[in-house]
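Why run this: before we spend reagent on co-expression, it is cheaper to look at a predicted model of the complex and decide which construct boundaries make sense. The entries below are exactly what would go into the expression plan.
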Amino acid sequence: MKAELISVGTELLLGNIVNTNASFLAEQCARLGISVYYQSVVGDNKERLSETLKTALSRSDVVILTGGLGPTKDDLTKETVAEVLGRQLVEDAHSRKRIEAYFAGSRHRIIPDNNWKQAQIPEGAIAVDNENGTAPGIIAEHNGKTVIMLPGPPNEMIPMFTISIAPFLNRLQPEVIYSQTVKICGLGESLVETMIGDLIDGQSNPTVAPYAKTGEVHLRITAKAPDKESAFRLIEPVSAELAKRFGNHIYSTDDKETLEESIASLLKKKNLTIATAESCTGGLVSGRLVNVPGVSDVFKAGFVTYANEAKTEFLGVSEETLRAYGAVSEQTAEEMARGGASKAGCDLCISVTGIAGPDGGTDDKPVGLVYMGCFLNGKVTVRKFIFKGNRSKIRENAVVNALIFVRDCILEDIE
Amino acid sequence: MKAELISVGTELLLGNIVNTNASFLAEQCARLGISVYYQSVVGDNKERLSETLKTALSRSDVVILTGGLGPTKDDLTKETVAEVLGRQLVEDAHSRKRIEAYFAGSRHRIIPDNNWKQAQIPEGAIAVDNENGTAPGIIAEHNGKTVIMLPGPPNEMIPMFTISIAPFLNRLQPEVIYSQTVKICGLGESLVETMIGDLIDGQSNPTVAPYAKTGEVHLRITAKAPDKESAFRLIEPVSAELAKRFGNHIYSTDDKETLEESIASLLKKKNLTIATAESCTGGLVSGRLVNVPGVSDVFKAGFVTYANEAKTEFLGVSEETLRAYGAVSEQTAEEMARGGASKAGCDLCISVTGIAGPDGGTDDKPVGLVYMGCFLNGKVTVRKFIFKGNRSKIRENAVVNALIFVRDCILEDIE
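The model came back. Tokens follow.
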């Protein structure tokens, strides 16, 4: 099955926003085993949208449009689709009630007239509930093709797609598609690809596809089968093989779990508390930990000791160490981690000190040099990194490698 | 002049990466006064790319392609464009030398054979130097239309566009286009739009266009004129008018300066040092400050006191206050700011404490409630916010509003 994406919105054409809707939908389609060969962006313009839609319908089975379903005159996705399909717009009673209920629960009790426009859908189409806004999604079948219209705001579109559209698309397919994601940290993308080369070569069902992000590689195992159970039976041996190959480098097989969430669970399970002691990352490591709701059970305190005096005063790094080895050194990282754990009264403390640039590098200590210390059970392990890229890239890499370091130390401690 | 963007790459079709190239180029075109009515994404597929390019050439004056200029067999943008334009690929001697020089300076001294493919360009086309990679950019003129091919990696594409392509496009236009960005913080998007409604209505040259990002609104003034000086003469009175209307809410008129950079400059100018005391933002406020190279002159230390005990121990918040008013209260924010400044020995300290959710909200203290305190000159000012959205949105809003709060306090202190 071939799908095509059309994103509607002048703000996309002006480069005012990045088209994250298209990447989300493309990834979801890939996950459902649906091929996407084309994506387009057009403005809120009837003629150009109409032309783009006609081209899409001529070459794809499913056309997914996002945006242009708002209440204003500028929004004309629905009107244009209805025209291209030769349908009238009619009011959907259920959507009208839903809009009424939506406004009843909001601060704006008076419903602007133009919001009723949002209850209209092309004759014979299906309205899809929007749990986070007024515009319903719309599914219209036409000569064996399917046109799906979704609202533009990602916080409305993503839940609607996940709850209603993905299962609908899955039913359109002769076989169901299920996938599992195996999330790996601490190994580079090329190494991971090399390690699964034999699985990728000549694979058909299930398939394994790698997706890289900073410090992580996600391997998605996707199976097609007549039903969910058979799909899982196909996935299971591949998942077991990956577990054998990557062992502790796998931090999760749950689609939704993030690296910091897996670390927070690990800390909870082991009854460990953590503190952070950061210099060049400036609080971004603790910021990642605080992404996790309820992290207060395990994360107690973080120190951002950017100045040398702060390293001495709040972490107890000795002035002698700073003088002899410098702020970016194995010794300082070691003392920062030890001091942070002691001051915060935590079982574990991760420290980060480095040269993020663009200035401050020397031949001995180039920009990108980062030392990290991890204190656990009275002992500090130190790691040295040399990251490439600009200031923000170096710091981003340092943050994720600090998290991986923490995870490694906990896992080694367990063994 | 009408331009159209074609992004080439299977990883875009699979949703593996977000198409930031398209938003960058769209914004740059808007800035140059070039209209973009269509953007497309296609995979590395000769037939589909050829079809998309022909459609684009039929309706636009300039077609900008990104991606598919690499050395592998998969990369076939250049081959496809040459075929559509009816040209041969020929070796560009200058590009061959540049590739040789590029490899001479790298760790890989042996040049892989397929890299020579990158020195080829369509006959009669212009090769554009790539300062950050091997693939040259290419400009080919064809029947009064222009096809521009750029490498896909943003760190190669963006400098190449800025240095070579933007001036080239500007020369294609009968008049030059220049713009200035006036960056506003602390006012909502709709309020800013209302305040400049009269300037937007009936504007022609220069134009003013608002661009919103979290906590900020950027107003871009764009003028067309026969030369740079005349363009600036058109921009100047509008810029002055905006300065009059928005006063201190304007933090910069420099395209590249960020909010945190402007705050760091302000602190330096006033000879003030700053500390942070964060709870729900978990270090992201200090993380923003450390975005600024050389911030160590003014930023000394940050405390991430997520646990109540940490608030007491490291910031001196009294247990009595925490018991009586709770961790998310005016009183706690006040004591956090005062304590942070005193412990770090800084002139200024910003504190943030709030309920980022999804749990922990009550009728009295809902999810999204955030108190901030700003200590300066012995006095703490407290602000209360109720932010909407999920945990990450609430924290993102809290971070930028904390920065704006710091800026406001410094400016009030100056007056």
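Residues 308 and 327 of chain A are 7 Å apart (CA to CA). Chain A has a mean pLDDT of 92. Bring this page to Monday's planning discussion.
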